Each structure stands twice: as structure tokens, then as C-alpha cells.
Amino acid sequence: MHFDTLLLMSGTAMKVVQLFVALSLLIVLHEFGHFFFARLFKTRVEKFYLFFDFLFPFSGLLNFALFKKKKGDTEYGIGWFPLGGYVKIAGMVDESMDKEQMALPPQPWEYRSKKAYQRLFIMLGGIIVNVILAIVLYIAVFSIYGEEYLPVANAKYGIMADSTARSMGLHHGDKVIAIDGQQVTRFEKILPSIVMDEGKVITVERDGQRVDLPVKPGIVHSIVSGTRGTFVLPRMPMVVEDVAKGKQADKMGLQVNDSIVALNGIPTVFIDQYDSVAKTLAVGQPITLSIIRNGQPMQLTGTLPEDRIVGFYKYVDPEHYFKFEEIKYGPMAAIGKGFSYTFEKFGDYVQNFKLMFTSKEIKVNESMGGIISFGKIFPAEFDMQKFLMLTAFVSVILAFMNLLPIPGLDGGYVIFLVWEMITGKQVSEKVMERATSVGLILLLALMAYANGLDILRLFK
């Protein structure tokens, strides 16, 4: 696919392409982790598949592949059912549920003939590769692009507060100083400090005075449910980025980089002020825009059209207004940052997952999502830096999810192996088969539930 074709894609199509590429890469590398350790310990791998060549989790239904090729003892292929991938390791109870093989005497090249610690590495192989991949991607991003963030102090106009933020007492123009007494230095940390760290009190500067605002019950729920906006953003001036040809703004003479300081005589220096006044206008009502152009005040007149669209775009990128801090990393510093950032993100996701079950305000049915939710995190326009960062983060998520102690996932097998290493007693194959069957059905139910929530949200 040519790069210019990528640029012409719709936003939704671009999200889908990025999601498909990222997940395909992560699935292949995850399964390669199992494959690598299996071959390292001289264990035969019979299949290596991207996607399933059967109707998961029913290994005997609709068995066909879009592509397959046998090389050595291993059949490599691409299945038709795009919900993951797998490696079929000889002598192992897995999603293939090959009971005929398991009924035969163990062979030296089989998984069940290997020592417990070797089987443990084989099972952890995918998770290990996911973590290593995240580290490598983060190292690459930090070494190539460095790091950029908006210091709270540089958001000189304070915050724009959405309806949720205003309901707890925050005002447009407040400057966030601290949360629970801890100074906030990065603007991007305000929201996580409230939601993930369960902040209780926000301290702001308002008209030169310090004001403490408690995070009221229901605030976190409103933020997470995503029904009321973005909580807080840097407050930005009302500056024109572009003007639509032939629309009312064009007829009035509005130009790029004009600063709109008043609408019908009411001050609108900031975006939140303009939006508030614009909502009160009636169709056909005369409108007067007071602007600053090249340092000179001017007034433009017109009427509000029937579609209520004046026809201009405003700058909403904080980088247009504020100085962002840039951190450049040398090779060694990038390596250190890659490691620390990976485990920071892993810890963040663990905390986020825990809050779904411990927080009174974060509900599972509002926070959990499936493939559509994954797709939404990718930007509508391709950006290599963002793509690499998001792919690394999804790799962290896959590592964590596969660690969950659910039979059928790597973590489920690890629990059985740890039990064996502690007690010296191997779990019977019959128990493994039953546990795996239950686990696979549970996984299918969880996937159906998560993706069902996504579909319901689309209709909402």
C-alpha cells in the first residue's frame, strides 16, 4: 500500500488498519515466544497460526486456513477466525484439545515430557516477548522522538472545565496546583491522579487565592463513563485556524489567525467563552464578531444561518499556544527510560484493572471494551510515534491479560505449573482438559460480553 493511499483513507479505515497491523504483529510475536522456548527445549511445535483455523473455542468446527505451509515439523498458517492465534505444541493440553495425541504414551519431544521449569518458560514465552517488545518500542520512541509534555505552569490561562469538572466546583481559568497535597507538574497527570490514584482534593489557584475542592461522589463515574466531555483541558484563546469557503464567516471577512475577542459585545477571548455565548444565539439573529487582526481591532457583521454553522475552525491544539517541555534521550538514557516506562504502564494497567472491581464509581460494564474499544485508541490520522507508543501499550495489555489465572490463558497453565513445582505433583491430564474446556468457554463468554458492550455503545 502506498503512503499517499494511507493519507487518503478515512479516519475509521485508518483506525482499522492500524489496529489490524498492531494486533497481527503482537499475536505473531506472542506466539513466537512460546515457539522459541519450545524449540529451545527441543519440544516439537506442530502448528504456528496467526488467527484460528477453527471456530474458537470449538477445535473441531469449521477447520480451514486461509494459508498454510509445512516446514519441518511445523505447519505455519493464517486462520480464518480473527480472534488471536496459537501454537500447537506436541503433548500439551491447549485450545486444539487433541485428545488422541494425549492418549498415547509420552514422547521425548513432547511438552509433557519436559521438566517443570522448562514447561514454565514455554508457557511464559509469549508474555516475556510482549514485555520485551514493549521495552524495545519505547526505547525506539524515546531515542528517536524524545519526550514532550505540557508543564502545568505553562498552561498560563488555566483550565477549561467541562460540565463534570464544573459540577465539583472547578471554574474556567483555575490553575491546578496540587492533588491531595502533591504538586502536579505535568498537565497530562491531572486526570490519572484523580481517576487512577483516587485523588480526593484538588487544590487550585483562583484570582490569586488557593482553593481546595473535594472530588465529590459521582465525579469519577462521570469521567470514566465518558458521557460529559474531557474533564479539564488547557484553556485556549479563541483563534481562527481556517475559514470554510462560501460560509457565513467567509462572507463576513473572517481570516485565518484572527482572534475573536467578543461576540455580540460579550467577551469571548477564550474558546469556552465563545462556545457558551454561541449556544444562546437564535437562527437569523445578527452577529457581530469583534476581532484582533495583526494587532488591530475590527468588527465583522453577519447573521446566524439556519444550520447554525458560522463556518470557521478554531485552533484546539495546545502546542499552538503553549511551550511544551522537550526531553532528549541519548542511547543509554533511552534504554533506561524504555524499561522504566514499560513497567510504569504495566503498573498503571494493573491499577486500572483493579479499580474496575474495587472502586464504587468505576463500573465494569462502562470500563470494559472489546475490539472496537481497542480500535478507538488509535488516531484517525497515521502518526508513527503514536502508532509505536500505542502498539507498545497494547503489548503491555496483552502481557497482563495473558497472566490472568484463567485456564486457556498462559496464566492458567502457569498456576498449574507453579503448583507442580511447589508440591512435586503434576496435575492430571484429565483435570487439565476439563479446566481448559471451562476456561475457553469462559474466555469466549468474556469476549462476547466485552464486544457486546462495544456494539451497544455504538447504538447509544
TrEMBL record:
Enumerate the cofactors the protein uses. Answer: Zn(2+)
| InterPro entries per the UniProt record, alphabetical | PDZ, PDZ_sf, Pept_M50_Zn, Peptidase_M50
> EC number(s) on record?
3.4.24.-
Membrane-spanning parts: 7-28, 48-67, 120-145, 387-419, 431-450
This protein's source sits in the domain of life called: Bacteria
Q: Which UniProt keywords apply?
A: Hydrolase, Membrane, Metal-binding, Metalloprotease, Protease, Transmembrane, Transmembrane helix, Zinc
Q: Which Gene3D superfamilies match?
A: 2.30.42.10
What does the record say about its membrane topology?
A: Multi-pass membrane protein
Q: Name one Pfam family in it.
A: Peptidase_M50
Predominant location category: membrane
Q: Where in the cell is it found?
A: Membrane
Q: Where is the PDZ domain?
A: 238-295
Q: Which GO terms describe its molecular function?
A: metallopeptidase activity
**Which family is this sequence assigned to?**
Belongs to the peptidase M50B family.
Name of this protein: Zinc metalloprotease
> What organism is listed for this UniProt entry?
Nemorincola caseinilytica
- What is the primary gene name for this protein? rseP
